[in-house]
Amino acid sequence: ASEYYESPNGKVFAMYVESKQPNMSIAQEAKFQDGIRKLVESWNIRSYDSTMKMYFAGSSRVTEYRALIRDLKIAGSISGVLIFLPLLIRFRKIRFVGLIFFPLVLGIPIGLAISSFFVSKLNVTTSFLFAILGGLGVETGIHLFSRYYESRKKNASVQNSLLELYVSLGPAILTAVASLAVTFLLMMFSDFKGFSEFGLIAGIGLWVLFILYFTFFPALLIFAEKIKLLKFSHSLESETERDFSISRDFVKTAIILFSLFTAFSIWAIPHLKFEYDFKKIRADDSSVRWAKVKQRVTSGERVNAPAAVLIKNEQEAKELKVALEAEKVKNPNSVLDKNSSVYSLVPDQQEKKMEVVGNIQRLLEDDTIRLVPEEKKKDLNRFKEALAETTPVKKEEVPFELSELFVGDTKIPGSVFLIFAKPQLEMDHGRNAIAFAQEVENIQTPTKTFHASSDAIVFADLLRTMFRDSKKILLISLLSVSLFVFLDFRNFKKSGMVLLGILSGVFWVMGIFWLTGIKLNLYNMVMIPAVMGMSIDNSIHVYHRYEELGKGS
Questions:
Q1: Chain-centre distance of CA 451, in angstroms?
Q2: 28: part of which helix (H) or strand (E)?
Q3: Where does residue 438 rank: exposed (0-12), middle (13-18), buried (19+ CB within 10 A)?
Q4: Half-sphere exposure of 22 (CA within 13 A, CB side)
Q5: Angle at which helices 129-153 and 527-549 cross, to 10°
Q6: Alpha carbons 318 and 324: distance in angstroms, whole number
Q7: pLDDT tens per residue, range 451-510
């Protein structure tokens, strides 16, 4: 199909190419798109007109998929380096870092393999779990290795060192991992797949890593000692026990600043904004963006895919049309534009229209027509010929290329009724998508309620589901974390101290979002309950270590 538009700035011609194969996978769509692009780029358009420019607007799915794969490679490399370097600085030896990493290298693939029984494919949200699980899982290895290293340097026996890992450090790690994993797994109850699949894979991955670090890793450390890969210069003093004093004035100043920023962050939370414009958070290709700008000039409605309603007959099409026109009258802010069906391809009231054509023909036979200037008579005669050739349009005369859009496979009864949003509205904007969905997802007629479907309606439903479930998951996450902390300490005062650090961390994230102008969006919303679960790790370990070493240590 093609369309043409002439503007003061020049002529715009748009061509649309569709595949014969419906419901293509991303790989098939990419191959189809690459073939067209290669053909288009082979054309020497300047040979037709030296000022001509060509733009290619491919599939957004393909653009985003390729950007995702590229970013995954970058994110994986950066996260690996940023985990490796601090460990190398801390332990000084590459082989020590390798020992800590080894269970991680085994555990992440195992966790993903188990998750594949429940989630067949990764999506945009879950794809980055490689980096997230790496950062979260390695913490357990760091704690275990550090305590074992410290204990063996003090000349403790292997048995006592392992006993210290399981008795002194084990409960803290178990509480931290259990609360974090459960926080993630609770996301499974969300209808929003970005939450549910992210939570399931992360929860399973964390438990797998925990089991490996508490079974395989201690055995690996003993084996490393036996083959002389792990050696200790025995010392009676722990490297962490150094003289360190903090003045009371410093403590007071820190608490005041801490309290002020926490209060500010709590104030900032209601003022955070959500990024409704999906184009601003998706992969951006400048050439595709310009092509779609030109495309909108020629045919705005083709940029916004219409909503489709399944209908059985012409009567249902008429009822839908009446209901939609009534909605536009009732709602002054309606986003609805035109609608069409296979029945609208044949003009209605053709008998009355033919009477009008006959009246025009009789008027053109009047003697006064002779007074028309000679230079206009050519156009007048052509008009008379067109009127003479005008006959009622029959259903069977409609080209199949036009009706195919509505009926598709003729073996399936019924057809689709298409509803268009106003072409100037971007359906990639969440507010527009929600407004469109509210008007067409449930259309009431005298005989039945019709339900429309489109990408915009799915997008709107996804946003509404996320808004609803995010509050529920955040509350459940807080309750589950609080329960695990209390089960660990069995003391309200101690539990409150730990939870204060956790909640303050979440508040601070929101405060920093507000200060830096970062908006919440479809992807980073999933990290809010995750931050709450992740922050428990350090709070629990610090408090347990404080109790172990004593006041003032």
A1: 25
A2: helix 26-42
A3: middle
A4: 3
A5: 10
A6: 10
A7: 999 888 988 988 888 888 778 778 887 888 888 888 888 889 988 888 888 888 889 999
CB of 481 within 8 A of CB of 536?
yes
- How many angstroms separate the Cα of 431 from the Cα of each of 56, 229, 428? 28, 60, 9
Residues in the chain: 553
pLDDT exceeds 60 at position 49? yes
Cβ atoms of residues 284 and 394 within 8 Å: no
Kindly state the percentage of the chain with pLDDT values over 90.
8
Q: Which of 209, 163, 161 is nearest to 184 (CA)?
A: 209
First CA to last CA distance, the chain: 77
- Residue 177's alpha-carbon distances to 87, 136, 183, 194, 475, in angstroms, are 20, 9, 10, 22, 19
Q: Quote the CA–CA distance of 355 and 361 in Å, as a whole number.
A: 10
State what percent of residues in the chain have pLDDT above 70. Answer: 89
- What whole-number distance in Å separates Cα of residue 305 and Cα of residue 433? 11
| 130-141: b (≥16 Cβ within 10 Å) or e | bbbbbebbbbbb
- Cβ 18 vs Cβ 250: under 8 Å: no
Using DSSP, state whether 254 is helix, strand or coil: helix
Q: Which two tokens stand for residue 285?
A: 């290709």
Maximum C-alpha span of the chain: 123
Q: What angle do CA 128, 134, 139 make, to 5 degrees?
A: 140
Distance CA 454, CA 378 (A): 48
The pTM score is 0.67
The three-state secondary structure class of 291 is helix
Give the pair of three-digit tokens for residue 254: 């820190």
Residue 105, Cβ density class (10 Å: 0-12 exposed, 13-18 middle, ≥19 buried) = exposed
CA 329 to chain centre: 35
Cβ–Cβ contacts within 10 Å for residue 289, how many? Answer: 13
Using CA atoms, how far apart are residues 417 and 331, in angstroms rounded to an integer? 21
Question: Between the CA atoms of 86, 88, 92 and 93, what dihedral angle is there, to the nearest 10 degrees?
Answer: 160
Instruction: Collapse the DSSP code of 233 into the 3-class scheme (helix H, G, I; strand E, B; otherwise coil) and give the result.
Output: coil
The phi and psi torsions of 538 (rounded to 5 degrees) equal -65, -40
DSSP string covering 473-522, please?
A: HHHHHHHHHHHHHHHHH--HHHHHHHHHHHHHHHHHHHHHHHHHTPPB-T
Closest CA to 14 of 277, 299, 426: 299
Place of tokens 């020049």: 10
In the structure encoding, which two tokens stand for residue 348, read together? 């209605």
pLDDT tens across 164-208, in order?
888 877 887 887 787 778 777 877 777 767 678 888 888 888 899
Name the strand (E) or helix (H) holding 10. Answer: strand 10-15
Determine the Cα–Cα distance for residues 329 and 321; give it in Å rounded to an integer: 13
